[in-house]
Amino acid sequence: MKIKMIGILGLCLMLLLAGCGSSQKAATTADGKKSITFYTWYTKDQFKWDQVYAAWQKKHPDIEVNYVGLSEKGDTEEYIKKLDLAAGSGENMDIIMVNNSLTYAQRVDMGMFAPLTDLIDFKYDDEYLADFAVDDVRYALPGKRSIIYVLLNKDRLDKAGLKVPQDWTWDEFREYAKKLTAPDGSYHGVYFHTWASQTLLKLFNQPENNSYLKADGTSNMDDPNLRASFQLRYDAEHTDHSAVPYSDAISQKLNYRDQFLSGSASMLVMGSWMNSTIAGTAESAPDFKVAVAPYPKNKADDKTIYTSNDYDYYGIGAGSDKQDLSYQFIRWMTTEGIQAQGTDISSWKQADVSKALESIVNNGTHPENVDLPSLTHTFEVSKGINKPPAVPYLSEIESEVNAEFEKYILQKQDLDTTITNAGTIVQQIIDANKS
To answer: Does domain 13-145+311-363 have CATH number 3.30.70.20?
Structure first.
């Protein structure tokens, strides 16, 4: 932990030095336009940059945005590594995009983002669904909104005589998974990915205290729904034999998109960034009808369907000397820009979600393969949880807890030992990071 902290402090120092050395005047192009840089993990095709930029130029013809994609595959892990290197080397970045609240909080802690306090000229709560201020300071505006839902192979649902769920429980989810598993084992009922977040399934049904930490920063490892989440994963794989084995997922480095699109799994618990995928892309498309169901509830009489939600974030580099220009772009991109993009659901409160979903599906190569009514219904009934503020050491907690979960799911230790060990480790990390 000390070595990790030294690394962060070193990057912070480099960022500060880079910021101190940024005294350049706003760059201009040959035709006199003002120029800013935009860093993201998306490829231009994935981002639909040509149509986004065309819409931007209609509103701001005097500001050129230079697109800097740091991953040829659109891979967020590769992007973050390259982003940190670019920041540490003093590269001047105007607009920086990150993919979730944890990555955002960590980079704020490193000093990568400039505060937006003096730039925001509107009542924030009236405009956006999400507000992830860090120490009461906003460093970014939220972009797309992603919820967690369940994708289902509707052809197999029909064959099994099952309806598309509109309101269901985890117990019913398990029954569906069993009925959607091939008797000969040629395909499974469900695929769970290897991310740590996929071990917190029943915690995401709680509007508060739905992570490893509570809102006050104390441990949440004694929450019975954490234990129940681990148990759910174990039972689906080892009791029901309906889940793709975790050992296969890690040893074969399985891709969650491929598992569902290829038919290896009949259901997939995943984020709504899959909307474009199920509608079909140039790279891949399902050859079956896809239905969408809301996140399962813990109890049938729970009145609200809660689900985990996340956003990506658009911020301004701490060393940028073009903050006014950069702010114009991130404000536009997180409102009108996402609408022009037509690939995601905006966190802007004025966005028309139904219209956006229809546009996303119709922009796909195989829109006829998506059961649009079930997708629209899922967004209508899903309510996002209130995640606790992200702390810079959350990734360490995730890694350590997931290591204990792996021992359990691979049948190397029992559940009691797993929960006890994980709780002890989390408390040690909390104590080591107390100021």
So the answer is: no
